[in-house]
Specification:
The structure is a homodimer. Chain A is of the alpha/beta class. The first copy, chain A, contains eleven helices and 13 strands.
């Protein structure tokens, strides 16, 4: 006899599509994989032997110091004691769910939002309430209505180059959200895996640096700027939350692997870090621009989109609105993969007509061909 | 407002004692740390670049094959599809808790049992029912009574060199437990981090290899035989459970770090593996024997114990029964650390008079001195 939560246990549709998308010949716009060509060389030969032994649940002290220092430079008031190193930032969602969610608890999410966050919150039997994105931010009025109606345990936001929409909240939008969180004392979970993938120099202060009294958790990742196979991420938490989160981490996996933490610290300390990040941004900017040009030539009559200033995704809205899920199998058969937009909405009846297309993992010379295949699928299905 | 489970969130007393035990001059019998001198040399310089990218939630295919092959050699009927690589075997407890435990669910544990398992099950609001160890196994009659009275979701057992008691179930005891599990269709969680630390050649078939119809999960670890800082462990599950467990792993941290998985596979494949394991067993056997001799000279009038055939711990029963928890602070002040036995019992009113002493992490020449300090604390407190 299983626990009740198992009724809410869904496989990640992304991972299933990814498996299908790995068939030879398929051009995949489906996943969110960093480009292998973007990974730095790593010199593992100087790995110190202390990494072999058990470590601290909180993470390596020097890595926590380095993370806190970088966060302070972004305006987050924190010290190293508020930093918890994670086994990838997905683990942060698990710990936050454990901290806040009882069966039937409400949580606020953006509409659309990160698919795996919905899965984690739902596994803990939360009711996810969506707040539509509006311009460079949230629909504030609906945000307040949802807070009043549902008394959510927290708001989960991805304000920089949001997955899937690419939205980057303006400074004003961040201030407005921060004021609303303070008004209701609503905890903020701010998830920022993409904030360094800023191709047009539009980075903004974290919302948690703007709140005055609401508790907050800020999540960051080394998966996009260093390498995801290490499984090293982190959270920084308001002093009222960090002790609980450290204990939840202890219970989850004792501590994060130490070889990966060591490499992350080497990266943080490297004099080449700014140059590396600039190269990474240039690499992805070129792919973003190539994809924008390919879209312009192949999709301008079929869909609307905004060119994202960062992150890894284009978010298309079809001019002829339709459920995009039935397009997936024909697309895979035609040799192209994408993510149906419906999966990213908390609503039981999600809006139709959206597609998420990843631009980071496909060689530029294959983008036009992939989009032509997708175009044919759309036209054939029309 | 936190989730209800947070009321059950306790810090690991082991980790708090470990912090205190790391003060200079303290001889620590408290933790379960492998000896640093036991760790093999590791050549990281040939780490392949594929480990940088995201990997599969299930784990590296070749590592899963190697784990399944070794398990089959122990009698476990399984293939690689039933193997899930974990971020340390602590994660297995988290996944199993998610799979089976609703608030107020009962689970059966040995009495005494592994402290961190109690913490994990309690965090998910389980009621833990203890079944006393009896001889080289469980008190079967009480086991059946507990199954009938409490309808537990699973039985959690550590049959080889059990933590904390050192008990190694006999073949007969394993068969009896397997028959009881089959009789009630009760799922078995068999946790075997110590089964390779077998100093007297007494290893026995896993209980899961003896059950006919009860579902089961077998957990193993690389922390004790390779190095714990990698955070790589695994579970092998009955076909009816593995799909759920893989999805729960996905939601918890996507997948286990790939550099650590690579090193674990190198270890599994190495022609030197049998020789390495024999050296490790010899290393710990020597420490076990040194500790037994030190105990004999310092504690034979104060306590009773059995010399364990494997694992990392001696389990002492004081001749004068008393609550051992108030002894901890005086012991730390006197420069010696131990684990009070009370922490290892599921019962609200745990039995008194037990101490767990680790022998793996202390240099043999310090063992007598540490035990003399502990003896003085006991005598002063009497």
């Amino acid at each position: 006899m299983f626990a009740q939560r198992i009724q809410h246990l869904t496989s990640s549709i992304i991972r299933e599509i990814l498996a299908a998308a790995q068939q030879p010949g398929v051009i995949s716009f489906a996943g969110g994989l960093p480009a292998a060509a973007s990974f730095p060389e790593a010199d593992w030969s100087t790995l110190p032997s202390y990494v072999k032994q058990y470590g601290m649940s909180e993470g390596e002290p020097e890595l926590r110091e380095a993370i806190a220092a970088e966060a302070r430079s972004k305006g987050i008031r924190c010290d190293a004691n508020q930093v918890l190193v994670l086994s990838g930032s997905q683990q942060g969602l698990d710990l936050v769910s454990k901290l806040f969610i009882d069966p039937e608890s409400s949580v606020l999410v953006e509409s659309p939002t990160y698919l795996a966050a919905l899965q984690s919150f739902r596994l803990f039997q939360a009711k996810c309430q969506g707040v539509p994105l509006k311009g460079p931010g949230l629909d504030l009025e609906l945000f307040e209505t949802q807070v009043r109606d549902h008394k959510p345990r927290f708001a989960y936001l991805i304000p920089s180059f949001q997955n899937p929409s690419g939205t980057c909240y303006s400074v004003q939008a961040r201030q407005d959200v921060a004021a609303m969180l303070d008004k209701y004392g609503l905890p903020l979970i701010e998830d920022e895996p993409y904030c360094e993938l800023d191709y047009d120099g539009v980075a903004k202060p974290p919302i948690c640096s703007l709140v005055q009294r609401a508790p907050w958790v800020f999540q960051g990742s080394f998966s996009k700027i260093l390498m995801p196979g290490l499984r090293v991420g982190y959270l920084i938490a308001h002093p009222s939350l960090i002790t609980h989160l450290v204990r939840l981490k202890q219970a989850a996996d004792l501590h994060t692997n130490r070889p990966g933490q060591w490499l992350a610290l080497e990266y943080m300390r490297s004099a080449e870090k700014p140059a590396r990040l600039a190269r990474l941004q240039a690499f992805y900017r070129e792919r973003r621009d190539a994809f924008a040009a390919a879209l312009e030539s192949e999709f301008s009559d079929l869909a609307d989109w905004q060119v994202p200033s960062g992150g890894l995704f284009f978010w298309l809205k079809l001019k002829q609105v339709r459920d995009t899920r039935p397009l997936l199998q024909p697309a895979l058969a035609a040799g192209v993969a994408f993510m149906p937009g419906e999966a990213f909405f908390a609503e039981d009846e999600p809006p139709h007509g959206y597609l998420r297309l990843n631009f980071s993992h496909t060689e530029p010379e294959l983008m036009v061909e992939g989009l032509r295949r997708l175009r044919q699928v759309l036209l054939s299905a029309a």
